[in-house]
Structure formats: C-alpha cells, structure tokens
Amino acid sequence: MELPIHLSKDTREPIYHQVENQLKALIAGGQLTAGTPLPSIRALSKDLEISIITTRRAYQNLEQQGFIRTTQGKGTFVADIADDKKHQVKISSVYQTIEHAVDTALQYDYSLEQIKEIFHEIIDNHREKGE
User: Fold this and answer.
1) CB proximity list for 107: less than 8 A, separation 6 or greater
2) What is the residue-wise DSSP string for the chain?
3) pLDDT in tens, 45-97
4) pTM for the model
C-alpha cells in the first residue's frame, strides 16, 4: 500500500513530523479508516526514501497519541479514533496550512492586507464553483 505522503525539504519542519502530520490528516479525514493496515516501517522508509529511524519515530509518536496500533507479528494498523480527536486534527491541519501560506506570502513581501485579499479571492472562487 502506497500512502499519499509528500515530503518537503524546503521547510524547517522535521521529516518525521511531516510524516506524522500527514498520516494524522489521512486518518482524521477518513482516507485511512480504523483497522486499515499500514506499511511496515521498512517499506514506508523505502517508499518515501527516508531513514528507518525517521519512520520509526513518526510511527512511535502516532502510536503514543493513539492514532495507530502495532500488533507483534501482524503489523501496524489504524486505530479507532474518537470523532472529537479527528476534529481537532482537522482544525490543526488547516490552521498550519494557512499559517504556512501566510508565512510564504510574508517572505515575498506581501502586506497582511494583500494576503487577506488573496484569501478572500480564493474563497470567492470556491463559492462560484459551488464548493
């Protein structure tokens, strides 16, 4: 199973944290449901071209937070997550994404007012599409 995880080397966010956050988003968003088997640490490391240590850290953090569970000899599986926990992950993920976009715009010397205009334009475009 290949997971839709996309890593960025152009960010200060550690790779293990990117893996962890994207897996949380896939679980909270329902793309990975409770009981879904996940790739082994070794297989995911190979797919993402990252170290086994990095992948193990992401999996350990996810297991400590209750998002995944590992059964010796059987593998790693998506845990059954409470709806309120899923909701928290969704809010956090969207917030971090918008924050990153604002930081990027500020690096390009956009003013906060210009960023707000861009944000409203994007929202208006989605409304027009009926989303």
Assistant:
1) none
2) --------SSSSS-HHHHHHHHHHHHHHTTSS-TT-EE--HHHHHHHHT--HHHHHHHHHHHHHTTSEEEETTTEEEE----HHHHHHHHHHHHHHHHHHHHHHHHHTT--HHHHHHHHHHHHHHHHHTT-
3) 999 999 999 999 999 999 999 999 999 999 999 999 999 999 999 999 899 88
4) 0.80
What are the extents of the domains in the chain?
15-78, 83-128
15-78, CATH topology level: Arc Repressor Mutant, subunit A (1.10.10)
> What are 81's two structure tokens?
């997550």
